[in-house]
Amino acid sequence: MVRKKGSLILCGAFLFVAWNALLLLYLWGRPPIGRLGEGVGAEPGGKEEWGVDRGKGVPVNLAAEVIRLAEEVEIQLETQKELLKQIESHRAVWARQKDVGKRETEDTKEVKQEVVHQPLKPPLSRKDSEDERDQTQVKNTQKPVYTVASDAKLEQHQAIDIKEDIGEGNKLPTSVASPEVVIPILVIACDRVTVKRSLERLIQYRPSPALYPIIVTQDCGHAETARVIASYGDQVTHISQPDLSDIRVRPEHRKFQGYYKIARHYHWALNQVFNTFSQSTVVIVEDDLEVAPDFFEYFRALYPILRADPSLWCASAWNDNGRDALVDPSKAGLLYRTDFFPGLGWMLLKEMWDELEPKWPSAFWDDWMRQPEQRKDRSCIRPEISRTITFGRKGVSLGQFFDQYLRYIKLNTEFVPFTKQDLSYLLKEKYDENFIKEIYSAPLVKFEDLQQGGSLRGPGPYRVQYSTRDSFKVFARNLGVMDDLKSGVPRTGYRGIVNFLYRGRRVFLAPQEGWTQYNVSWS
Description:
manganese ion binding; transmembrane; Glyco_trans_13; disulfide bond; 3 domains; golgi apparatus
């Protein structure tokens, strides 16, 4: 940073000297004013005197020429004065940055020495006098628009660090003295003023603004929605997607323009989180999601699991079959692995974004995520009871799933202390062994037995077996779970198995034992 500022000052000084040299050459090589435009001067008293312009007979006003020349000199002097002021201001900024850097280096050494000799204290968020610069808005460029840029950064390996990230046109002071990783919440917004409901719950349940900075990224340029977001002040960071233009699509895809814009927005926003804000992870929610009281606790506990197991690629707060009648209210802390990408409140690591970003699709990003080429046999974590619900019927899907499924999803209300639990059972080796044993040791029953229930004893679990795509869809519809498949994977499915409650009994809708892979043609 010091080297960069020094270079700017040397460049400014060089420009100042060069400007004066050019001005001197300009005035020196200027034709004498007695015969302007002819390339030859006129000496007083000679045959060609100052009084007449040869060939035209137009009187030349000596006083006017002198005044004009003086005005030009004055303008040049004012320009030089401004240049000097800029050089002086850069010099002052350089001095301040050098001093701040020196102080931060000393502070970092002191913090690290304290860590060696005493236990860690709760995280403290520190702001310096330069936070006011973060109020700058940048419009109609390919850089983000920041109305507030208060964020916290922590190194991936949980080392204590105090650092300032300086981007072009904006500055993001970061300061957290804690071994805990920062988990930003990225809110995807467009033109729904009801984003207020989502933000209210996020702020209400957020245990620490420093550890969970909320970044609201807005597309669409909707002024009323922007005012709602701005009303939260420094409680959130508001950035705006700069490219609001329509996207050229095939004629038959014109009705899907909204899906193309959403994919573009996601791509831009995730690049901001990982590349501009330099975060190691993020939790993505949309502006029509309401979160549960233990939403932050849930993702805090799953972060190390996601890092430890390469067979996992996301953690989601959503259960696609999370309707009230299909979940066990007494098992709020129960978590599962799923091969189906759920979305609707999900955690992504930077390493995974580095893999996905170069091939990010132009539209339908969520279904693209569910393709085998992206999933690569990896799984997500999902809860028994959802930690998010959607209240937004308005959207590009025109409410096609909202009225039929989404409005009935149950939101968890019981706070579960996940960070105090041992979640290692979710790691693939442990999970698969126990899961397969539990599924295929459950009694195999017919669908009619479940409907009548007279011959069944106890709450289960029971297993219903399907063998074809059609048989799966028939059983799913009759049992009340979602029957669609994406790239052959059923919603909430793990190794082809869908786990839910039916009339108070635990049911596994499962393929035959010995299942090996999904059939993509079932989509």
